[in-house]
Specification:
With 452 residues, the protein is of the alpha+beta class. The chain folds into three domains: 100 residues, 3-Layer(aba) Sandwich (Rossmann fold), CATH 3.40.50.20; 70 residues, Dna Ligase, domain 1; 241 residues, D-amino Acid Aminotransferase, Chain A, domain 1 (2-Layer Sandwich). The strands form six sheets. Strands 13-12-9-10-11-14-21-19 form an eight-stranded antiparallel sheet, with helices on both faces. Strands 3-2-1-4-5 form a five-stranded parallel sheet, with helices on both faces. The longest helix has 19 residues. The mean pLDDT is 95.
Length: 452
């Protein structure tokens, strides 16, 4: 590959620019008008403006991105995460224009993007799935019949969902009717597809995902797990690897299931197979993310691999040189998502200009961020402004380094989640590794109002 268009913004766009530079590949940044001062635009070899601030008028405009690709004569497009990264139509358009989409083929994105189809696909391959409907529910009446057999509580999920949107929990018939229609309405508004399905709701599970790499020659590997149980309203806040919960035997068994799921999907490139683990230690497939994940640095720091470079090599047709038995997990890593939000005001977004910015450093600390002193955070996009990663020989060292790094991190002019992360890192429940997906809410309920 000679040149790659980066169809994204923020820290992931900057991350891709840096990987391409190390590989000797030129980059084209596309950007919205408010992002003209963003670091990825400044550091890319070329840059083209594709529209005003709102993502619907810029980063989600496939025709403008493809026009930029044609003007600049690029070989491939890297979509990062979010925006068009899991849009099968966009991937298909790239294919028809003879531009390599750095990710799986459009048919795979379409198959695994429909959660009901994905669940059925992996179930047939022998991967455990959460009990639920066989596919989309056509009516409230049909849904009630299915729920009666499963028993409450249940969770209603958008077929085309993601990021916690289009999901509702019901504990009885009355709440089910309300949440069913709410989920359909949100799904239609957010994804343009109101179809939903129903699953048994597993209360307070752990959320574990396995990183997958698959080349075009049939080799599929897993790079271990990430524990993503620290989340709020289905939005991940802290991730770590390896999980403090999994035993070596569980890791081996779940890793095999993740590879089976990828094989069933005929997967290619980087992806993530996500599972829930209940209180009895049983695990269930919930979905497959057909893109690079926000938390990919955690895996990079425990394996020593550069996942963005691996994506590009796979897209170039190269075979994976790695062997499963030789992949070593040599360290423990933790990632805190630094969001421009005010934890004291129910995590309300806090866009604005950063007056002072100082990033932490030192041994065992990594910062992936596109912001700097004087940078203005636009109000149009996700509130994440950086990722702070710590790593060490074991979990205790990684926690100690993370707390130290959070204490050094200075961002003034906007509110951030740094104080919230410091409180979590010093909480005994987190330190002992006894968290579930309900942990953050429980922590907030028992924490004093002025903690953040």
């Amino acid at each position: 590959m000679q040149k790659i268009l980066i169809a994204n913004r923020g820290e992931i766009a900057l991350r891709i620019v840096r990987a391409c530079r190390e590989l000797g590949i030129k980059t084209l940044a596309v950007y919205s008008e408010p992002d003209i001062e963003s670091l990825h635009v400044q550091l890319a070899d070329e840059a083209i403006c594709i529209g005003p601030g709102p993502s619907g008028e810029s980063y989600l405009k496939a025709d403008r991105i493809l026009s930029a690709a044609e003007i600049a004569d690029v070989d491939a497009i890297h979509p990062g995460y979010g925006f068009l990264s899991e849009n099968a139509d966009f991937a298909e358009q790239c294919e028809s224009c003879n531009i390599k989409f750095i990710g799986p083929k459009s048919v795979c994105i379409r198959k695994m993007g429909d959660k009901a189809v994905a669940k059925d696909t992996v179930r047939k391959a022998g991967v455990p799935v959460v009990p639920g409907s066989d596919g989309p529910i056509e009516s409230e009446k049909e849904a009630i019949k299915i729920v009666k057999k499963m028993g409450y509580p249940v969770i209603i999920k958008a077929v085309a969902g993601g990021g916690g949107r289009g999901m509702r929990i019901a504990h009885n018939d009355v709440s089910f009717a309300k949440e069913y229609h709410a989920a359909r309405g949100e799904a239609e508004k957010t994804f343009g597809n109101g179809a939903v399905y129903v699953e048994k709701f597993i209360q307070n599970p752990r959320h574990i995902e396995f990183q997958i790499l698959a080349d075009a020659h049939g080799k599929i590997l897993h790079l271990g797990e990430r524990d993503c149980s620290v989340q709020r309203r289905h939005q991940k806040l802290i991730e770590e690897a390896p999980s403090p919960y999994l035993t070596a035997e569980m890791r081996k068994k779940m890793g095999r299931s993740a590879i089976k799921a990828a094989e069933a999907a005929e997967y290619e490139n980087a992806g993530t197979v996500e599972f829930l683990i209940d209180g009895a230690g049983h695990y269930y497939f919930i979905e497959m993310n057909t893109r690079i994940q926000v938390e990919h640095p955690v895996t990079e720091e425990v394996t020593g691999l550069d996942l963005i470079k691996e994506q590009i090599r796979i897209a170039s047709g190269e075979a994976l040189e790695l062997e499963q038995r030789k992949i070593q997990f040599t360290r423990h890593a933790i990632e805190c998502r630094i969001n421009a939000e005010d934890p004291a005001r129910n995590f309300a977004p806090s866009p604005g200009t950063i007056d002072l910015y100082y990033a932490p450093g030192g041994h065992g600390v990594r910062v992936d961020s596109h912001v700097y002193g004087g940078y203005t955070i636009p109000p149009y996009y996700d509130s994440m402004i950086g990722k702070l990663i710590s790593y060490g020989a074991n979990r205790q060292i990684a926690i100690e380094r993370m707390y130290r790094a959070l204490s050094e991190y200075i961002i003034r002019g906007v509110k951030t989640t740094i104080p919230f992360h410091r409180a979590i890192l010093s909480d005994p429940t987190f330190v002992e590794g006894k968290v579930t997906t309900g942990y953050v809410q429980e922590f907030l309920n028992r924490s004093p109002a002025d903690l953040f």
